[in-house]
Automatic annotation (TrEMBL):
Name of this protein: Acetyl-CoA synthetase-like protein
Regions that span the bilayer: 275-297, 317-336
Organism name: Calocera viscosa (strain TUFC12733)
Residue ranges of domain AMP-dependent synthetase/ligase in the record: 42-430
Gene3D superfamilies registered for this protein in UniProt: 3.30.300.30, N-terminal domain of ligase-like
Length: 601
């Protein structure tokens, strides 16, 4: 069978002579770029209403770059780590570092000190930017990674001359002879002010090949093992922006305003974490390239997000599945006027057909669909087509210049509607590799530019890509493959269920059987409490049986959760919504051992 190609043409060349900020901030007349309202803000701080236009952005980027160069003499190729929730100066710090030729490695602000230390050491970071809320972890990790002794820590904070740890934190352990409560660290705002008085002290890399330089060291989610540093070049992010914009037919003539992807004055909710490639490449860079405002939200909270949508008249929502589940299950949504929203995209993990249907019923006038991508492809490879009705359960159609293969277990290429492992290639993935990890690179990044996604998928005859599940996460029951996502999608719509994660556990007769870890909804908790009003083990059993019966009534015999239902407080996930199966598997081992010892049923 032939390989699968996009049905959309992107007629312009992909530049390899530009960095990300040169493309976004300096190339104002790119043919794919729609016009922006002259006074329309680029970045808007949700909490304060503070906003930046293009000229102020450029000035802040320039001043910050000069101050960083003066203080730390950052050279091309040096690595800077950003350890912060979303902040209005977060992208400014990224672009300033890119102006200097530095590589940016963004870290999850919920990391422990040990996890951050691992990333600092893996990347040999020279400088660390941290938010006030994560500073105590940053200090401990930086000390352990021998970064603190260089005094190379900058704080994202409200404008003030300097940031004192004593103002916001209880003392932490002494670090390299310093008492942390007496430590004063520079803020981004302070460095921008310093930069105003400095002459240009660096030479920005320009010209042929600059786009091939590494822009980001983004870490994999670590769902099945230790995170790996993925080296993403400037050209990869730029290509993905161009592909997404062309796929959305942004500048194509003949569409009514309500049919267009982007209109003058639009605004997007910036709640996806910027350290994640989906938030960075699509939610930030595509949005800004298309002339929208990006409303900076530090961290997603449903009620606050609803208030933000109304306050800023947000038109575009970029979400991950847990956010959508909260939206469709919360009664408070109905108390807000969300008529301003026109577009919603869901990515980073599959969204069930049931939840998708609920969302479309809740907001029937919103154009909503899914996309698929991964860090190893600098974000998206497919997206739903805005001008067509999105297919429930589909991850959309391939982006321009993206080619896909579906490879069966025997190595043969699959045809339409035949499942197998998804392989892709395109300009967004060209040249990406795992940094300093040749064996892992050889397994994922194949000759001729192919990337093995590790996902089981199939291609429909209409060009829609359907992602079934991670191949490594499939459960083998009597030789049959069971996708955990299928059972999770079914269980999560039960009234008793708030969240769920499914993994396989050993079974003497069938090899493996599914076990479901379930977080109960308020209705489920009430059912457990029963007439007594207090949860107890007796009340749990009927609820567990009800959930097992829910699967039995709708799924084939081999898909039943015969490993049982275990009630938990949370299901471990990364911030993009992907379940951390390795942690669930560890928890499942404990459940199995306890059952063998007769400690649980």
């Amino acid at each position: 069978m032939p390989e699968f190609h996009s049905n959309v043409v992107q007629p312009h060349s992909y530049p390899t002579d530009l960095t990300i900020p040169q493309f976004l901030l300096d190339e104002a007349s790119h043919p794919l770029r729609p016009r922006r309202l002259p006074c329309h803000a680029w970045l808007v701080d949700d909490a304060t209403g503070r906003s930046y236009g293009l000229e102020e952005l450029r000035e802040r980027v320039e001043c910050l770059a000069k101050a960083i160069k003066a203080r730390w003499n950052i050279e091309p190729g040096d690595v800077a780590c950003l350890f912060s929730e979303n902040h209005i100066d977060y992208p400014i710090a990224v672009w300033a570092l890119h102006r200097l030729g530095a590589v940016v490695s963004c870290a999850n602000p919920s990391y422990t000190a040990g996890e951050l230390e691992y990333q600092l050491k893996e990347t040999s970071a020279r400088i660390l930017f941290a938010s006030p809320s994560s500073l105590h972890v940053a200090l401990a990790a930086a000390a352990a990674a021998n970064l603190f002794s260089q005094d190379n820590i900058v704080v994202f904070a409200p404008p003030q001359p300097a940031f004192s740890v004593q103002c916001c934190f209880r003392p932490v352990r002494p670090l390299d002879g310093y008492r942390a409560e007496h430590l004063t660290l520079p803020t981004v705002e302070q460095l921008v002010t310093e930069g105003w008085d400095l002459d240009k002290n660096y030479t920005e890399l320009r010209g042929s090949g600059v786009g091939d330089r590494v822009a980001l060291l983004s870490f994999s989610s670590g769902t099945t093992g230790l995170p790996k540093a993925i080296a993403i070049a400037h050209k990869n992010v730029i290509a993905d922006v161009m592909q997404v914009v062309a796929h959305a037919r942004v500048n194509e003539k003949g569409f009514k305003p309500e049919e267009r992807f982007a209109c003058p004055g639009d605004a997007a909710l910036g709640a996806l974490p910027l350290y994640h490639i989906y938030g960075f490449a699509v939610n930030l860079h595509v949005v800004l390239f298309c002339g929208m405002s990006y409303v900076v939200v530090p961290k997603f909270n449903l009620q606050k997000a609803l208030q933000t949508i109304v306050r800023h008249r947000v038109t575009h929502l970029y979400l991950v599945p847990p956010m959508v589940v909260m939206l469709v299950n919360s009664p408070i949504v109905m108390t807000y006027d969300l008529s301003c929203v026109r577009f919603t995209m869901v990515a980073a993990a599959p969204l069930s057909t049931e939840v998708t249907g609920k969302f479309k019923s809740l907001l029937p006038n919103v154009r909503m669909g899914q996309a698929f991508g991964m860090t190893e492809t600098a974000s998206l490879i497919s997206q739903f087509e805005l001008q067509k009705e999105s297919i429930n359960g589909s991850a959309g159609t391939l982006l321009p210049d993206t080619i896909a293969r579906i490879v069966k277990e025997d190595g043969e290429l699959a045809g339409y509607d035949e499942p197998g492992e998804l392989w892709v290639k395109g300009p967004q993935a060209a040249g990406i590799c795992y940094s300093n990890n040749a064996p892992a690179s050889g397994e994922t990044f194949l000759p001729e530019g192919w990337v093995r996604t590790g996902d089981k998928a199939l291609m429909r005859p209409d060009g829609n890509l359907v992602v079934v599940d991670r191949l490594k996460e499939m459960i083998k029951v009597n030789g049959y493959q069971v996708a955990p996502a299928e059972l999770e999608d079914h269980l999560v719509v039960h009234p008793f269920v708030q969240d769920v994660g499914v993994v396989g556990v050993p079974d003497d007769r069938r090899g493996e059987v599914p076990l479901a870890f379930v977080v109960l909804s308020p209705a489920g908790l009430q059912a457990v409490a029963g007439e007594k009003g207090q949860p107890d083990a007796e009340g749990e059993e009927p609820v567990k049986r009800a959930l097992e019966g829910w699967v039995q009534a709708h799924k084939a015999r081999y898909k039943w959760v015969e490993g049982g239902v275990v009630l938990v407080d949370t299901v471990s996930k990364n911030p993009s919504g992907k379940i951390l199966r390795r942690l669930l598997r560890e928890k499942a081992k404990g459940v199995v051992e306890a059952r063998r010892e007769g400690r649980v049923g």
